[in-house]
Amino acid sequence: MAGLGDHAFSHEHFAPIGRRALIPLITRNKTAPTDSSGNTPDPNNIQGDIIYLFSKFTEAFVFFRIGDVPLFRKALSSFKPTHGKIHIENLHTIRSVKAARSGEIVPLAQQQIAFSRAGLNLLGLKDKTGDARFDTFCMRDNKDMLGDRMDWDKIFDKPNSDPIKGTANVDEGAIHGVASIAASDFETGEKAVENFKLLFDGAIEHVEVIRGKERPGEMRGHEHFGYLDGVSQPAIRCGLNQRQTQVDPGVIITGYEGDPVPKRPGWAKDGTFMVFRKLEQDVLGFQDYLNRNGPRWREFVPPVPLEPGTTLSDEQGTQLWGARIVGRWPSGAPLAKCPVFDDPAMGQDENRRNDFDYSVPGVTGLSDKYCPFKSHTRKMNPRKLGPYLSRKFIESSSIIRAG
Length: 403
Description:
Helices cover 27% and strands 9% of the residues. It has 403 residues and is α+β, with helices and mostly antiparallel strands.
């Protein structure tokens, strides 16, 4: 498997696209690599956002209940999810347009579909998936366990939730499925949403569409606190970026090495488990918190050698305080490599910004000299905790964020 595809060629070929969290591994013939061992997922049978992440400027999530099962089955047979191979072909097209520097936008809509436990039951797929939480609980059942104190949208606020026994198999108030539609622009996305509704007309009911879009201008690619987003995603071994956290295929895609459930139903292979959550960010409150603490920079600046006489302005202290909370600077540069000042060039370099762990030269064992243990990125992916936890154990908890 080690010889599958060409990493250097893949990065060089897709470079004109610009920033992408995951770069597909392709051969010099510009095709996805094949593997006779059976342990490399086939992109022809995997929805593209799962394995490569859709290119998107806007995205719509179309939640629904199934009202007419026979009619839904008929419509579903005509629904064409954008599988991995098609997505690679679309990336080739985007790459060609970008390389030509014409400024043209490739009008593109890509789509996939997912079902809840109740939706699968309704379609006759009642076998247990092997995931006890999915097979037993709706997220609403676990609202208190999640520490979520917010009011939920009506469509997600399932009645009679049960945190003990779970209500995943109770149909009343359940969402049966969701189609996610990613597009290059709002008009193209809306047309694809309407086409989906038209295809399933009469088969689905209680349709609710939740829309999102990229931030514009200089903030494109940044989340609302201002930090470059999607910088580090887990990459399937022998399939994607070398510098990302590498995981066995089964960590992300069911039915392969790394899947914690040794035997799932045949229909579950090449799938994954999707979680949809709406999170609220208090941008003004966060920035006010940074501004109030930035002037205290002498109390938290890492003890690293600086040029004689070097001091930080209040603004630089504010940025450092934020970086120590997040674990990266707004540019995407990791605090572990840039403990005092941002390095925008590193933040734009897809290799350097992920080629690190939290070890400190000359220090034995774990250290928070450069990056606090409690920083967001370090808690989400500690990268290296030997000899306390194995790398495989850390990898097993990886998820892909594709919203």
